[in-house]
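[Solved] Which block belongs to which protein?

Original post:
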Amino acid sequence: MNAITKIEHWADTHHPQWIDFVRVILGLFILYKGILFISDTQALLSIMKTADLQFVNLGLAHYVAFSHLVGGILIAMGLVTRFAILFQIPILVGAVFLVNIQQGFIAVSNNTEFGISVAVLILLITFLIYGSGKFSVDNWMKRHPTW
């Protein structure tokens, strides 16, 4: 048994059912943030403002929006949850450490965004370990392999 299999087995045996509800809420919240990014791309680009890297920032903005839209749906449904989370974690690490450092950790208007970013990052790491859970498409597909 390798380490990943051991972690997955432990997570399956120690997975409380209420945490699936938290996973769905997290997925819907990430989807909501993706919709906000799509509707106001200029706000996202102003956060990542660097004059030398305009095209990189534009590509990064598309990556963030697409990852949030698709990843939010996948996380909420519990379909390839760990895979979807792997695309979300770099975005949230950037939000916590890069964006909040530029705006200042002490700024009153930034405290809420910083707290939400940290909470979402912690939840993503938790679900990376725990997986999708009992009430998920992944679990349904395990129980119905011939469907």
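(Second protein starts here: sequence line, then its structure tokens.)
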Amino acid sequence: IFLEYFDGRISLIFPKLKCLTFLEVTTDVLLSFIDNLTNLKDLIQLNIYSLNRNNIDTDGIQILLNKIFSANNSRLNTICYDHQSIPLTVIDQNNHLLYSNIKKLEIFLEKLHDLHHLLTRLPQIEIFYVGLQYESLEFNHTKEYSSVESLIELNLISLGYSFYFNELSSILNRTKKIEKLSIKIDNTDDLHLISGNYFNSFLSSFHLKQFNYLIKYISNSSINQKEILSTWKQFSQQFDYLIDDDQNHIILYSIPIHFSHIGISTRFFTNISSINNHFHKIQSLRLYGVPHIISE
């Protein structure tokens, strides 16, 4: 309805618009609207929340992504695309489109290779928040990617699949200039990701001013939580953990927890009351699994 009245005249009706937010629209509506975002001289920020899919395939998703990043005659410098939206894909192309206008980006992508392809197109990115949805079984770990010299803050969240250290290192090896690093991994069975000694050795070539970490590790055998925690003593901040009664699931995290949105399985509930003042930054909490514990 909005486009029926304002088609082609948005810049005339809202000439001072600086920030535009789309909430719970479909992909077809967003595509139509973005085509009309032109010549808004002050519009530099675009927020897209809870985008729903409607009659769009992988190629269509790529077209949508290009339009989002190039909207308003490539005047945007800040884009927020949240994790409640459909995950985006980035098709590798020989002639890469560069989005040199983007300085700050929050985005939700399907796989690790989408992240690498997108980083190649962001030569001026400074602050990058990215969530990954699915495992990249076909990801080429031996491929070398260009470094991203402009990036100073990286926030990486892996959702719902087992993440591994070589996947993480493939990203960090491209971003050696970062000063702030935040990593949240929802699921892994890789011991390297809970070894502070291993992490400290890898990060020794970085010049980090801030490091935030939260990871859920799953083991087939009993976990020695005190031994794991002792490997993180060489970091400037403290670390702590939550462990379930079976001693084979552990959440390791830096104190205080930096992330505003976390999910916790109810298997950790019997031990969570022992933790004090670590969760004061949490704004959104998702509880899941093991319903019999709740009933007890």
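Accepted answer:
You had them paired correctly. Confirming on the second one: The chain is about 25% helix and 25% strand.
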